Amino acid sequence: MEEILDRYERYSYAERRFLASNSESSSENWSLEYTKLKAKIDLLQRNHKHYLGEDLESLSLKDLQNLEQQLDSALKAIRSRKNQLMHESISELQKK
């Protein structure tokens, strides 16, 4: 019986140590993950403001040219989709 209790104490102590070390490592991982996600959110918010034409003072000429090119591409895609929907609508009306 004493041998069983000794084994129980050894294993429960080892398990507590393992869980404690896992907990510390897990909190470090969460902290690192939080930092990465926070940086991504900040970048996305900054880009969103730029797309809205806000906070452009900090951008260089090259950055502004890249932003203009991205907006031009987006505008072309929007106009293309709009024209497609208008043609479909006209076709539907002509069928009636």
**Molecular shape:** elongated
Report the portion of residues in β strands.
Answer: under 5%
* Computed Rg: 30 Å
Largest sheet: none
Q: How many strands?
A: 0
Q: Helicity level, as a percent range? A: over 70%
Low-confidence stretches: none
> Mean pLDDT, as a whole number?
88
By helix and strand content, what is the structural category? mainly alpha
Number of helices: 2
Q: What count of domains describes the coordinates?
A: 2
Q: For the record, give the distance between the C-alpha atoms at the N and C termini, rounded to a whole number.
A: 91 Å
Element order, helices and strands?
HH
Describe the structure.
With 96 residues, the chain is an all-alpha fold. The chain has two domains: 1-58; 59-96. Helix content is 89%, strand content 0%. The protein contains two helices and no strands. The N and C termini lie far apart (91 Å). The mean pLDDT is 88.
Keywords:
mainly alpha, elongated, 2 domains, 0% strand, 2 helices, 96 residues
Q: What is this structure, in a nutshell?
A:
This protein is mostly helical. Helices cover 89% and strands 0% of the residues. It folds into two domains: 1-58; 59-96.
Question: How would the blueprint of this fold be written?
Answer:
Elements: H1 2-51, H2 61-95
